[in-house]
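PROTEIN DESIGN WORKSHEET
SECTION A - STRUCTURE
LENGTH: 158
TOKENS:
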């Protein structure tokens, strides 16, 4: 799958590459440009230090959607508006110590499956943050937060 790029598209991608701060997006741009110049996926992968299958995925994203930004699931599209409001309300009323428990609640309540990173992204997008509760020994040491003891809960909105 070789993307057919016009001169204007190549120029736009080159410009975007120069100003883009996200290295993952720059790698995707390079993959598209190099493939349009006749490079193989294996050669592109070696040059970018990524697997040829990853190169193929980047090229497929570009050909199908002109997608350059890596968006791996996350907060959009799994819960409808009513479910989102219900989950937000539930999280205001109940504190969870683990994101995996929230994933389990969503799966049990709405048959919607989230990964822990996906639910974490959902929580952040909806203004929730994690603070380690007092008296709970965390496996990872956490820096102290300037938050009252009553606010130390997973479902505390930002």
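SECTION B - SEQUENCE
RESIDUE ASSIGNMENT:
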């Amino acid at each position: 799958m070789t993307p057919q790029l016009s001169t204007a598209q190549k120029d736009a991608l080159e410009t975007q590459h120069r100003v883009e701060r996200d290295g993952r997006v720059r790698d995707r741009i390079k993959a598209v440009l190099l493939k349009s110049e006749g490079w193989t996926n294996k050669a592109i992968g070696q040059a970018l230090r990524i697997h040829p299958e990853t190169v193929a995925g980047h090229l497929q994203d570009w050909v199908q959607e002109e997608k350059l930004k890596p968006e791996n699931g996350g907060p959009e599209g799994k819960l409808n508006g009513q479910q989102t409001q219900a989950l937000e309300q539930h999280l205001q009323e109940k504190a969870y110590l683990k994101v995996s428990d929230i994933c389990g609640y969503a799966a049990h309540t709405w048959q919607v499956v989230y990964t822990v990173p996906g639910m974490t992204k959902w929580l952040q997008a909806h203004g929730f943050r994690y603070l380690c509760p007092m008296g709970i020994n965390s496996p990872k040491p956490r820096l102290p937060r300037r938050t009252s003891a009553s606010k130390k809960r997973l479902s505390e909105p930002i």
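SECTION C - NOTES
The two ends are 45 Å apart (CA to CA).
The helical segments are 7-19, 23-36, 41-48, 52-65, 81-93, 99-110, 116-125.
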